[in-house]
Amino acid sequence: MEDRVNLGKASPVMYKSVVQLDCIATQFIEDAGIDEGFSHLLKLRASQINQCAFCIRLHSKDASDSGEPIERISLVSAWRESLYFDNKEKAALELLESITLISQGQVPDTVYKAATKVLTKAQIAAIEWLSIVINTWNRVAISSRYPVLPANPDLNLQFT
Q1: In the chain, what are the helix, strand and coil shares in percent, each to the nearest 5?
Q2: Distance CA 21, CA 131 (A)
Q3: Domains along the sequence of the chain with CATH
Q4: Residue 3 exposure: Cα atoms within 13 Å on the Cβ side
Q5: CA 129, 103, 84 angle in degrees (round to 5)?
Q6: What backbone torsions phi and psi does residue 131 show, to the nearest 5 degrees?
Q7: What is the dihedral sign for C-alpha 48, 96, 8, 29?
Q8: Which tens digits make up the pLDDT trace of 7-43?
Q9: Sign of the CA dihedral 142, 145, 146, 147?
């Protein structure tokens, strides 16, 4: 694999601006009453959709460190088929997925209306900003090809 431009190193001012946006969004999410662990599950779900291995690993660990049980971390990609998520969380996940998959069309009115039934305006705005920020980070990591190496070198399997 050819080395890619590391966007953080190539344009530190831009990178720092994304970090600042992330910090502001994180505070907004907290102020809206969205649990820290669940916010990492939302970030994990967007990262799964975008196939960003770096962010999947990061937010799986962050969710675990925030107290999310392994079952919820494991099942967030199949949240529709599980009973581990309440109605608010399901509405948040649906909204996040619609924003992440924006190339498939606008956020459907049905998704937005379902969110308004169980989430406050502040929570909806926080989820939308979280979605925007994590999708930005996914694109930074994927474009730069951030390495995703096992902490244990014995797990670094190379297939030829």
Answers
A1: 75, 0, 25
A2: 12
A3: 11-147 (1.20.1290.10)
A4: 3
A5: 55
A6: -60, -45
A7: negative
A8: 989 999 999 999 999 999 999 999 999 999 999 999 9
A9: positive
Tracing tokens 């109605």 back to the chain, one arrives at: 87
| Average pLDDT value for the chain | 93
- Structure tokens given for 120: 């406050």
| pLDDT digits 0-9 by tens, 69-114 | 999 999 999 999 999 999 999 999 999 999 999 999 999 999 999 9
Q: Which amino acid is at 87?
A: N
pLDDT at 158 over 70: no
Q: Are 46 and 96 in contact (CB under 8 A)?
A: yes
Here the tokens at position 129 are 């900003």
